[in-house]
Amino acid sequence: MLTRLYDFENKTNPDMLARNAVDYLNDNNIKLQEDIFVKLIKGGTYKIKEYYLENSLLPDIRGASSIITGVQEDIIPKYLKKEIGFECVLYNGGGNLFAIVPDRCDTTLPIKLEKVAQDYLVTANSAYAISDSIRISELLGNNYKALTFGLENKLNERKKSKILNNMAPLTQFNNDQIFNCNVQAEKLDNAVKYCKHCQKRLAYYKKNGECICGGCLHKISVNREQKLNYYKEYKNFIIKHGNNMKLKICNNFTDVDRDYIAVVYADGNNMGGIIQTIEKVNEMMDFSAFVKEKMPEIVYKSLYEREISNVVFTALGGDDIFIIVPANKSIRLAEKLIEEYNRVFKEKYPESNSTLSVGVCIAKPKTPVKSMLEAAEDELSKAKQLVKNTNCNGSLSYVIFDSYEGVSGNRGRWTLLPYSLEAAKVILKKADELRNKTRINNLSEAFHKSETDTEANLFYEYTNAKSSKRDRIYIPKRFGRFKLENGFYKNTIDESDNKTYSIWDDLLDLIEFGK
């Protein structure tokens, strides 16, 4: 609930009436005094992942996440309140802020907001736009989306026109406070070196003996407590559920796991389907608040149930999830995230059919995290495409890097990826049953070396024939969109797909990384 401190006696003051309208949207028991003109503000930070991953240093990634959250959810709302005189934000999350302001506000207000955001973000870009005057009665009616359509176009045009020159960024907060941190560093007269952290911008500062640019200086200056806000929330979740599982604060990626780590990147499907059903602005406010509250809870519960204590939280905003976990638990975590998301959204929006898709990249901890995220995004795209093609109940896909250069271990027709949620359950259960990796590896090699599908299948049948009944390996006759035919799988959804697929490489991956 937003603060309600307005003067009912001053019925002619448009600022007071605008404040009344804001409060009305948060509490329908308040009666609007009269119809007035107002304006809308929309905007936020964009190209966020590029800002997170300007380098692969974990403290910098955490710092970037903290700054974006702080600017969007604290700095900008407070600045608006100071400028307007009252709290005016209607919803704020997933990189989008939406506010109602008095009609007196003009196009200088979005520019001021961008300047405030830039002072803190330094090397990330923000854009804001303000609408034309509209009647508050129109905003409160069923014409809400039509009214905001023009504002969205203005915002997109503003993003296109912005050019951020950040080759030699400076900080506005040297020897001052930012997010309760002291941004102190030695100011250099001339930038003769590139930043030690991002290695692409000129460094005008020196901190802890390192030459550093203004953008990276802000990231490392965010205090440890703020960087670990997600950890605090997850820890509280664990305590609430009576578990004594101890979280490990990861200072580098080898703290997550010394052998293999996984970037888990997830995104909701058919969010647009929910938004299309929203006709009034207060319904949109409710939806925004729901997503903002529930997405972290979905992640915490999934991590908790998979007993994952070594985790790096990067982003849990909007319907995006970006976390880093031990690779051997990543596929099971992806499965659990889909289940939890589907359950939570089905309860709130039963007609929406919104599901979750997850992309996972597994690699050595020294692999550049930017490369891992790009690969996870590619896998996410494949998973989302499966949902579009089959309308399945959520999906996941993964890739395994064999080296730091990012050579994939997945081999064309030898994988059944991406999986629907139902298919993932089937193959993970089968991987649990077949923990003898040597036998599966022998079958995989035979299928790879065979000159024909028939030859490969004969080896499979021969292996089963010479084994005892207890040791025979039986694979599912149906697997998601695939049907088993002579030891290989055929795609039953896409008639134009004449290829044959094998299950053995998938099983090898899941025996190792699907624990």
Describe the structure using short key phrases.
six-stranded mixed beta sheet, 18 helices, 515 residues, globular
Summarize the structure.
With 515 residues, the chain is α+β, with helices and mostly antiparallel strands.
Report on this structure.
The chain is α+β, with helices and mostly antiparallel strands and 515 residues long. Helix content is 45%, strand content 17%. The chain is built from 18 helices and 19 strands. The protein has helices at residues 14-26, 48-52, 58-84, 108-121, 136-140, 144-161, 214-221, 224-227, 229-240, 253-256, 271-277, 281-305, 330-348, 369-390, 421-433, 437-449, 453-465, 504-513; strands spanning 37-46, 89-93, 96-102, 125-130, 134-135, 177-178, 181-182, 186-187, 205-207, 210-212, 261-268, 312-315, 320-326, 356-363, 395-400, 419-420, 478-479, 482-485, 488-491. A 6-stranded mixed sheet has the order 12-13-11-14-15-16. Strands 1, 2, 3, 4 and 5 form a 5-stranded antiparallel sheet that branches. Helix 13 runs antiparallel to helix 15 (421-433). The model is unreliable at 1-11 and 404-410 (pLDDT under 50).
Main beta sheet strand tally, sense and closure: 6 strands, mixed
Number of separate strands: 19
Uncertain segments of ≥5 residues (pLDDT<50)?
1-11, 404-410
Using only C-alpha atoms, the radius of gyration works out to 26 Å
- Report, as a whole number of angstroms, the end-to-end distance: 43 Å
Output the strand order for the largest sheet.
12-13-11-14-15-16
Considering DSSP H and I runs of 4 or more, what fraction of the residues is helical? 40-55%
